[in-house]
Structure prediction request, 57 residues.
Amino acid sequence: MDRKLEISERFDVNDIRKIREYNAERFLNMPRSEIVAETKAGAEKVLKLLEAQKADV
Prediction:
């Protein structure tokens, strides 16, 4: 897939819809195990960012 996901600075409901459509398109022909692995990797990055912010407070 060559389409780039563009999110507005407002990050509103339309942006969430765009993300869902983008991911649905990306995951269409992907094996379930690969989808799960990618999702876990992304979640791990977010958790690390949250922990870093928590440590700064």
